[in-house]
Amino acid sequence: MAMLSHARCLRASSPIIRRRISTAADPSTRQIFVSKSTSPHFNLSIEDWLLKTAPRDQPALFLYRNAPSVIIGRNQNPWKEVNLAAMQALGFQLVRRRSGGGTVFHDLGNTNFSIHLPRASFDRARTGRVIEHAVRNIMGVYDARTNARNDLCVGDMKVSGSAYKIAGTRAYHHGTMLIATRLDSLGDALRNDKIKMLTKGVASVRSPVCNLRQWKPDASHEQFVQAAVESFRQEFDVEREPAFIDEGDFQDVQQVRQSIDELQTWECVYGQTPEFTHSLAQDFSWGAVTVDIHSKHGVILDASSDACPDLASKLVGRRYGTLDGLDVAALSTQEREVYDWLLRAM
Amino acid sequence: MLARVASRSLAASARLRLPLARTIVTKKYTKEHELIAYDSDTRTGTMSISDYAQKSLGQVAFVELPSVGADVAQEENIGTVESTKAASDIYAPISGKVVAINEELSSNPGLINKDPEGAGWLVKIEAGSSVEKELDALLTEEEYTAHCESEDAH
């Protein structure tokens, strides 16, 4: 077993122990799974379980919806991508997924698809066609087209964004389908103006989006699920019926339970953040303050400030964003003002 | 003319003989498209992703590596290579301890595309005791080329 000093939440090295599994949750007899749960932690864990346990030569499809949440890519910086204060005020969850790519907003007006194939025969154009066929030919949104990035658009607006993951002998294409998402919430949660934060890792590409409802007023989750299932079965010649699953079916699957717990840890959500620097500046009644912070894996590695050198030295080794464990009582009045501002500005 | 050819080949064999006498580097591949160049003298392997993998991933945007000092087991997921197309898990080709990571990749991940098996190396692993057996289980260059051709045929 590896000893890694930073987050290993997104890595799977633990043995997969399968005991009693409800028949609905058996990847050797089912190929199509539709989640009844709206927990992002459960659904992302099922996606990973399917990636690791589905028979290596068979295609698989997973469809799910999440309660309002912001899902960042594996190698992204949440402090750069997301407006955490707005998100918390709205009661949204922040989750880091295992696939690459940019940040997306999920709510019950958005349905996610995940198509799994053997790595050797994985073809993103083919999986893209499955979804295009579902929306265009089965649901009847005739203007829907796949663009050069393999995302589904109507006109020049995206209704779906995709990301891809490869692990061992398997690979998947997953994506969002905006049906009736609260686009105003999406804007609030993803607005961020920290121009003085320079970060490594992967930046999101902002694109204009719209809902399928705009083009087809009766479009619904159930309709898209049915269309995606039908399109998948046609393309891959699958006859098996979908399994409708939730947490109850996976109570005895240790890999899923462990993954659900891991996705909720600080190590996973924040501790996986690539290296970044942030230069913060503020005018106080008694003078101007600049604080320069260098962080990796969510922890402050170095901090400097000409106006508050003592406070800066106390930041080192603490978690960026929350500064857990800093002895607030020992701060001077001015340092306390700077500390309060830092908590808001980070 | 003959003399020139003879002297050149002598020089070439001298160049070859010198490193060979010192150490033997074994190059082996995994089916998941990693490779390890193992130096039996230092008992250390340099891990990379193959040129085939680099081509199929496209432009690399970020590389996530284990920390120096980490113990890794063969086939264990030790990081990811994220490109504009996908996040791809990477697996340790041999068991051992990570003794170096390629720090250059953090600011220049494109090195993996430019020179995957050279300047774009990922980590150096100091081998554990079962390394000979582990290397035996990996693919030779010929076997790996055949493996890639069979994947392309799909």
TrEMBL record, chain A:
Q: Which UniProt keywords apply?
A: Ligase, Transferase
Q: Where is the BPL/LPL catalytic domain?
A: 55-240
A GO cellular component term found in this entry reads: mitochondrion
* Any one GO MF annotation of this record: lipoyltransferase activity
A biological process (GO) of this protein is: protein lipoylation
Against SUPFAM superfamilies, the record matches this protein to: Class II aaRS and biotin synthetases, SufE/NifU
NCBIfam families in the record, alphabetically?
lipoyltrans
This one is known as Putative lipoate-protein ligase A
Automatic annotation (TrEMBL), chain B:
Top-level taxonomy = Eukaryota, Fungi, Dikarya, Basidiomycota, Agaricomycotina
What is the protein's species of origin?
Exidia glandulosa HHB12029
Q: Name one GO cellular component term.
A: mitochondrion
Coiled coil located at which positions?
none
The Lipoyl-binding domain is annotated at: 44-126
Record-given protein name: Glycine cleavage system H protein
Q: According to its UniProt record, what is one Pfam family this protein matches?
A: GCV_H
Which family does the entry's similarity section mention? Belongs to the GcvH family.
Task: Name the source's superkingdom.
Answer: Eukaryota
Keyword tags: Lipoyl, Mitochondrion, Transit peptide
